[in-house]
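Possible regression after last week's pipeline update?

I re-ran a chain I had predicted before the update to compare outputs. Posting the input and the new output here so someone can diff against the archived version. Not blocking, just want to make sure nothing changed silently.
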Amino acid sequence: MANAADTARANELVDDVSTTIVRRILAGCDAEFADWIQTGLGLARLFPGFLGGGWLKESSASDVCVILLKFETQAALDNWLTSSLRAGWLRTGRNIAVDAPAEQVSNIKRVFGRLDSDFRTDDQPKSPGIDAPDGIPSPR
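New output (post-update):
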């Protein structure tokens, strides 16, 4: 039987929210992109409710990256997404990467399935994507 503290903690976990943002790195901008994303994550850390984030590439040969952000609540995420600080930071990356709209995900496979539809042209072969090994929790 769970005690009141365990129940309260479980309820807190249900309320958190994660989102993904997909970006395509412009040619020759890999190093600048890495620095730019780290700056953005540093800015997000300043916002109440930020729980963490990171980024990864679809593959070593790909220019597509997925940024994952986790906040305590939807309101906290919305505060970051609509902030003037984030808008200013995004403007500094216009010559580094192009983006697709943010989308909440509940499964890592959905993130990489989305890459196929967001950036694929008819002349590109379908990527096998990336599957997380069993036992590794997916972002919420």
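Follow-up from reviewer: compared with the archived run. The chain has a mean pLDDT of 75. Marking as no regression found.
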